[in-house]
Amino acid sequence: MDTLLEMLPLLIPILVPDAVLAVVAVLHVLRHPHYRFGSKAFWLVVVVVFLLIGPITYFVAGKGGEQ
Known about the structure:
By secondary structure, the chain is mainly α. Helices cover 73% and strands 0% of the residues.
């Protein structure tokens, strides 16, 4: 537990932007019906389960056009 508390100042600059990006990605998945591939359920699982790379993967590969 002490090790985690010592590392917390180093982790905050990584975890806060990642959490914000995940929330934005989940909201985008819920609001938009068009994806390059996959479905809404697939992208929700990717974004939530793979928290570090899931939102980035969604915005790079899964986000469909504004139709």
